[in-house]
Amino acid sequence: MTYKTPAQQAIFASFAVDEQTITQAEQEQHITQQGEVVAPEEFTVIEISCYDYEIYVGDKLIASITYDHDEFITQRWVIIVNSTEEHRADTWAKCHNHIVWHYKQGTLPVQKQKIPATTTGNEFMAQIALECEKFGFELKEDGIYQNDKKLGSAGCTDGRWWVNRASSEHQQQVPCDSAFDAVWSLSMVEVLPSLDTRSCEELLDKPFDQLTSEEWKRLMEYQPASGSTELAVA
To answer: Any idea where the domains of the chain sit in the sequence?
Structure first.
């Protein structure tokens, strides 16, 4: 049995502690590396339409993929970053792989993040009112008017603008890009015939909630001919 002096024992103990510390540090580094492998950055695809997609890492938008409908283009799938074309490919998958690879390499342009939707309903209406003023329209509680003719309505729901034309048969909210686009869309609506050429019988067939103040006034002054149906106001 080899005898160790107290000094030798102290040195041995010191080496043992150092070796244990190094081993523990190596284990912690290994666990960290394994965690990075097991939980890589998650890329999420949000389908806006069958031709438009947004690519996210976590909650951060990094790029968009869209489809070029130009008849003479062969590489129709396009990568967009900050409204600028960055790359084209003949398949959606190639665009997606391009985004993932360049993002990991740090060579993908940095996408400017969307401003959180903190705008209040009053602020949305203020934007619509401003655009209405540019076109000479009047914004009322029930919609947008031109010379007392209702053109339709506009608004913003969950950060997405929409417009609803009064002439639309199904009264659907059509998506648009901004308050300007919404009001501009209404400026293309053909104005309905004036009251001078629109008979009261026609107005009786119009839903009451779509009647303008002038139309209501005319109906109130209207006296149907003998035997015709009287106007009942609820």
So the answer is: 43-105, 121-187, 193-234
Q: b/e map of 76-110 (b: 16 or more CB within 10 Å)?
A: bbbbbbeeeebbbbeebeebbebbbebbeeeebee
**What count of other Cβ atoms lies within 10 Å of the Cβ of residue 181?**
14
Distance CA 124, CA 118 (A): 11
User: pLDDT tens-digit profile of 115-166?
Assistant: 554 555 678 888 888 888 888 888 888 889 988 888 888 888 877 888 888 8
63 burial level (CB within 10 Å; 0-12, 13-18, 19+): buried
Alpha-carbon separation of residue 129 from 61, 62, 72, 138, 212 (angstroms): 31, 33, 41, 8, 19
- H or E element at residue 202: helix 200-204
Contacts of 160 (CB under 8 A, 6+ apart): 175
* CA 181 – CA 147 distance, rounded (Å): 21
For 29-87, how does the pLDDT look when each residue is reduced to its tens digit (9 = 90+)?
Answer: 654 554 444 345 689 999 888 889 999 998 889 999 999 988 788 899 999 999 899 99
